[in-house]
């Protein structure tokens, strides 16, 4: 939100470059971020350590909330509810989606906390379908995975910004591991990874008609997308937390002793 011409912005950019150059080692979570750091610092040893999914996760028997009904068709988001996620766009498009199909079995599950939560809850309460939009608050990792597994479509919204081209939301790897169709509005390497599977749709968060069409397309062709999304699990095996740890520790061992 800082203006690029401001004194604070210029100072922070100078300080950023200084830290990269003076550090003994630098790691980041995506290839574009590695390129960015190398370009502004001159370093050639930046290590990419993907924020992957843990192989230790297994499906567990967890009791779901009484609000959960499996006969519903469920769109689910799990994560931070902040400005960058732009969940207001998702909320408004979901309302239009439900009105279009005139069904009461569609649900939007929102898991997580954040500064935009009250705003989202208030907007949901004002809608005619407030009972179809359910906020679960903060849940444990195991509980979150169980809700994701029992959903039909998973959502990864993110506003359009050059900053987000450099990184990958960590939920990309968790969602892939679930093996369900994904609708996302991300850029950069995260978009490249999700695009490897025909079970996912990359769309535009700030374009209501395009976002709504993505919801409709995936719903109306759900069996096809569900089948293709099985490949998501295979993609996730290339980004395990265990392998990332090995890369990280190997990099640490390569740094000169002080």
SS content category: alpha/beta
Main β-sheet, in a few words? 6 strands, parallel
* Regions with little confidence, pLDDT below 50 for 5+ residues: none
- The outline comes out as globular
Oligomer: single chain
User: Beta fraction of the residues?
Assistant: 5-15%
Mean pLDDT: 91
Secondary-structure element sequence? HEHEEHEHEHEHEHEHHHH
Please describe what this structure looks like.
- The protein is α/β, with parallel strands linked by helices and 258 residues long.
- The chain has helices at 7-22, 31-41, 87-101, 117-126, 141-149, 171-178, 188-194, 208-220, 222-228, 230-236, 241-254; strands at 27-28, 47-48, 73-78, 106-111, 133-137, 153-156, 182-184, 200-202.
- The strands form two sheets. The protein has a six-stranded parallel β-sheet, with helices on both faces. A two-stranded parallel sheet has the order 1-2.
- Strand 1 (27-28), helix 2 (31-41) and strand 2 form a beta-alpha-beta unit.
- It is globular.
In short:
Helices cover 45% and strands 12% of the residues.
Features:
258 residues
List the helices and strands and how they pair.
Elements: H1 7-22, E1 27-28, H2 31-41, E2 47-48, E3 73-78, H3 87-101, E4 106-111, H4 117-126, E5 133-137, H5 141-149, E6 153-156, H6 171-178, E7 182-184, H7 188-194, E8 200-202, H8 208-220, H9 222-228, H10 230-236, H11 241-254
Parallel strand pairs: 1-2, 3-4, 3-6, 4-5, 6-7, 7-8
Helix pairs in contact: 3-8, 6-10
């Amino acid at each position: 939100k800082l203006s690029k011409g401001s004194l604070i912005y210029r100072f922070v950019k100078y300080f950023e470059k200084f830290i990269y150059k003076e550090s003994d080692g630098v790691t980041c979570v995506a290839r574009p971020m590695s390129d960015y750091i190398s370009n502004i610092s001159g370093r050639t040893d930046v290590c990419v350590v993907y924020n992957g999914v843990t192989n230790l996760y297994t499906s567990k028997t967890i009791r779901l909330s009484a609000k959960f009904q499996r006969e519903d068709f469920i769109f689910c988001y799990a994560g931070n509810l902040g400005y960058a996620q732009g969940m207001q766009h998702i909320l408004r498009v979901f309302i239009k989606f439900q009105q279009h199909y005139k069904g009461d079995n569609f649900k939007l599950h929102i898991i997580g906390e954040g500064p935009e939560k009250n705003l989202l809850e208030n907007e949901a309460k004002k809608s005619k379908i407030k009972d179809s939009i359910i906020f679960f608050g903060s849940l444990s990792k195991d509980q979150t995975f169980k809700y994701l597994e029992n959903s039909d479509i998973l959502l990864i919204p993110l506003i359009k910004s050059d900053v987000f081209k450099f990184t990958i939301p960590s939920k990309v790897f968790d969602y892939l591991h679930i093996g369900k169709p994904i609708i996302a509005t991300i850029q950069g390497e995260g978009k490249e990874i999700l695009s490897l599977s025909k079970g996912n749709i990359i769309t535009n968060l700030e374009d209501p008609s395009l976002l709504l069409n993505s919801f409709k397309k995936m719903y109306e062709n759900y069996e096809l997308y569900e089948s293709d999304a099985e490949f998501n699990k295979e993609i996730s095996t290339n980004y395990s937390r265990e392998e990332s740890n090995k890369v990280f520790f190997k990099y640490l061992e390569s740094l000169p002793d002080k």
